[in-house]
Known about the structure:
By secondary structure, the chain is mostly helical. It has one domain (2-205, 263-343). It has helices at 2-21, 25-31, 35-52, 54-99, 117-141, 148-158, 163-195, 264-286, 293-303, 311-343, and strands spanning 205-208, 211-214, 232-237, 242-247. Strands 1-2 form a two-stranded antiparallel ribbon. It has a two-stranded antiparallel sheet with strand order 3-4. A hairpin with a 4-residue loop joins β3 and β4 (242-247). α1 runs antiparallel to α3 (35-52), α4 (54-99) packs antiparallel against α5 and α5 (117-141) runs antiparallel to α7 (163-195). Mean pLDDT is 80; it is low at 200-206 and 208-264.
Amino acid sequence: MTDVVLVLAWLVLAHLVADFVLQTGSIAAAKSDRGSRALGGLIAHGLVVAVCLVPFGFAFEGRGWALVLVSAVSHVVIDRAKVLLTRRAADAALRDANARHEGPQPADHLGRAWTPLPAALFIADQAAHLLVAGIGWAVLLAGVAPGAGWSGFVDGLLGGWDRPTVHRVVGLAVVLLVLVIVNIRAASLFVSILVRPVEVGLDGLHRWGGRAAPAVASGGGPVGPVVAPARRWSVRLGPLEAQVAAEAEPPAAVPAPEDLGPVGLTARVGATIGILERLLICVFVLTGTDVAIGFVVAAKTLARFRQLDDREFAEYYLLGTLASVAVAIASALVARAAVGVLLA
C-alpha cells in the first residue's frame, strides 16, 4: 500500500510542478491566445508535462512511456477546453456588466463582471488532470513492478539502506511538497480567479487570474473595445432652446495584466498573508490542533474589521477568505490521510 501511495503522490507532484512551478507566464499567455501562438503554448506545456513524467517511463518502461504520452496529450486537450470555456464565460459576464452600465470596481472589491464560472472551470481543469492521472495509473501501472533496470539503479543508489524506511521518508517528502505547492501556488491562483475572474476589457481583451486573451463574441468574432458609460455632461445652446446632452467619455487607459487588482506593497502583503494563513491551517490539521484554525481566521478578520462596513468589500473579503481556508483544510485532510497510510 505504501508503494501505491508513493506512486500516486509522485503523479500528483509531477502534475503540480508542470502546472504551477515550471509553467512560465509566457506559456500561460500563449495558451490563452488564438491560432499558432496558442498551439505553440499548448505544445510547450505538453512537453513540460512529459519531462516531469520521464521517471515513470524509465521505471515502468513501455507502460510508463504510454502514461507519459497520455498525460501530455490530455493536458493539451483539457487546457485548451478550459481556455475556450473560460473565454466564453468572461465574454458573457462582460456583456452583462455592460448592459447594466457598470463601471470598473476598486481592486479590493469583486469585479464589475464577477462570475463564479472561471473558478469552477479552474477546479474542473485540475480535477480532470488528476482523473486522467488516476485512470492512467489504474490501467497501466496498478500491480506492475518497476523494470529490472530501474530496480537495479535504485538498489545501487540506496546501497544497504532499509527499503521500506526509504519509501516512507520519500513518500512523506513528496506528500508535504505537494501540500506546499497546492497552498502556495495553486491556491493563490484559484483565489485570485475566484474574486476577480474578469477584469475590465476596454481593449477587447479578457483578463482573468493575471492572464489575458483576445475576447471572442458568441458568434466567434472578436469583441471590440468596451465603451465606458457616459460620466460627463455639457450644456448645448441652440438658437431657440438649451439642451443638456451626455458627452462620451474617452476610454480609460487599460492596465497591463500584472497591474490589475491590488498592486505594489498591498498586493505582496495580502498574498503573503493568504499563504501564511493556509500553511498555518495545514500545520494545525496535520498535528490535530484543528481548533486553532479559528484563531488564524479571527486574527485576519480583526485587521480588516473597519473595512467590513463596506458591503462590497466584505463580500470580496469573505469570498476570498473562505476559498483560501477551504483549500487549506481540504488539502491538509488529504495529506493527513496519505501520511497515515505511509506511517501505518
